[in-house]
Amino acid sequence: MREIEEQVERAHGTPLPPPREARELEAKGVVTFTAIARVLLKRHLRRTVLGLSLMIAQAFAYNGIFFTYALVLSRFYAVPASKVGLYLLPFAVGNLLGPMFLGHLFDSVGRRKMIAITYSISAVLIAGTGYGLTQGWLTAVSQTVLWCIVFFVTSAAASSAYLTVSELFPVELRGMAIALFYAVGTAAGGLLAPALFGVLVESGSRVRVFVGYLVGAVLMLGAGVVAAVLGVPAERKSLEMLNEP
Fold first, then answer.
1. Sign of dihedral through CA atoms 128, 134, 135, 141?
2. Helix segments in 13-44, DSSP class H
3. How far is CA 180 from the centre of its chain?
4. pTM
């Protein structure tokens, strides 16, 4: 920890502020599901709505598009199965670079603004790329390039969803909050979205696939609006400042 603090001080050229006064925490053992429900549904309902909106939207769009892209390549662009991996590698690079280059903005520009911006931009890019598919404007290469650009932004947006649900609830509930939100998001995105997109791709209709992309875009845009309204300016604040233990 001391090495990290020294690196930050050297990078910014100024000493870090002194730590705030010590806080007493009471170890209560197992937190009951009743207590968890009380916190999520009564004490912090607005934050729960925010977290669910972000997690469900990113899981649906992310998993629906990414997990079925191999089907799109083979169905609409006649890419051999042996070559599909070559198109997925750039996809993965875009996913990696997004949070690396945009992540610091969530602390400097602010959580609420950046979450709303990345989710909204993702919605527009997903819809635009899907429309290009329906019009026959794209090749396998150009389609992949566009998805790399889309997920450069969308991966940063998705990362912010996990960031949000991990910091907006009491410290002793953080682990359970992440687990619950992830489970709900995965049910919507990890199970429903790939199954739905798989059926749409197998239909052979580019228009139907575009409808699936539009559903993901609408969910992302809706989550962006929710973030703009209910988002919490959590940047550069300690967990205890965001929520009383």
1. positive
2. 33-38
3. 15
4. 0.87
Look up residue 132 and give its amino acid.
Answer: G
Instruction: State the chain's mean pLDDT as an integer.
Output: 88
Q: Are 201 and 209 in contact (CB under 8 A)?
A: yes
CB 124 within 8 A of CB 117: no
In terms of C-beta density within 10 A (0-12 exposed, 13-18 middle, 19 or more buried), how is residue 97 classed? middle
Q: Which residues of the chain have pLDDT under 70?
A: 245
Q: Which long-range contacts (CB under 8 A, 24 or more apart) does 170-179 make?
A: 170/39, 170/243, 170/244, 170/245, 171/25, 171/239, 171/240, 171/243, 171/245, 172/25, 172/28, 172/31, 172/245, 173/31, 173/36, 173/39, 174/239, 176/31, 176/36, 177/36, 177/40, 177/51
Inter-residue contact 46 to 230 (CB < 8 Å): yes
The C-alpha atoms of residue 117 and residue 112 are separated, in whole angstroms, by 9
Hey, what are 141's tokens? 């290469």
Classify the C-alpha dihedral 153-155-158-162 as positive or negative: negative
Q: How many CB atoms lie within 10 A of CB 30?
A: 6
pLDDT in tens, 35-79: 888 888 888 899 999 999 999 999 888 888 888 888 888 888 888
